[in-house]
Design brief:
By secondary structure, the protein is mostly beta strands. 4% of the residues lie in helices and 46% in strands. It has 1 helix and 14 strands. It is globular, with a radius of gyration of 17 Å. The termini are far apart.
Length: 170
């Protein structure tokens, strides 16, 4: 057996304040000692204490940990994504998808410097969260990718630079 690998029970009994629809799950890297459970009252489930970190991560439709486990991103029904410092439970960035309505999906890049957010408007936004993490502010810049026809035929992809409504020609 490997050292420091948490053992998991067959179910998690969330406190009544956190019960409801579960919309997304994410294990914390590298050990998986914490499970982010997205829902109306999102919690960080600590397997060691069998309890939730409550009150900070609410109404999320999706969650993702940064590769180093230091940050948690949560997509929200209000068209925003939030990046939280897991240790301090404080937000470091609020990211508003331009023209967005609901952030259904969030994912960090392998190096943790970029956050992708998927919106109901058919656009994926790419955020430079490295700047926000180092400045502890909402200094995240954005670019976005809009996918065209999603059929078995070739897909059109458009790449936009921050603040520009015209695609970049590659």
């Amino acid at each position: 057996s490997r050292p420091n690998v948490p053992s998991y029970s067959t179910h998690i009994d969330l406190p009544p304040s956190h019960r409801g629809s579960v919309t997304s799950l994410a294990f914390s890297p590298p050990s998986g000692a914490t499970l982010a459970i997205a829902g109306f009252n999102t919690c960080l489930w600590d397997f060691a204490t069998a309890g939730c970190t409550a009150g900070h991560y609410t109404n999320a439709s999706s969650v993702a940990f940064s590769p180093d486990g230091k940050f948690l991103a949560a997509g929200n029904a209000n068209g925003k994504a939030y990046v939280w410092d897991v240790t301090t439970a404080k937000p470091i960035a609020t990211l508003t998808d331009p023209g967005g309505k609901v952030v259904y999906s969030v994912a960090f890049s392998r190096d943790g410097k970029t956050l992708a957010t998927g919106d109901t408007n058919g656009t994926t936004y790419l955020w430079n969260v490295a700047a926000a993490a180092s400045a502890s502010s909402s200094a995240a810049g954005t670019g976005w990718i809009r996918l065209g026809n999603l059929t078995t035929s070739p897909v059109d992809a458009y790449v936009y630079s921050p603040g520009n409504s015209s695609p970049v020609v590659l």
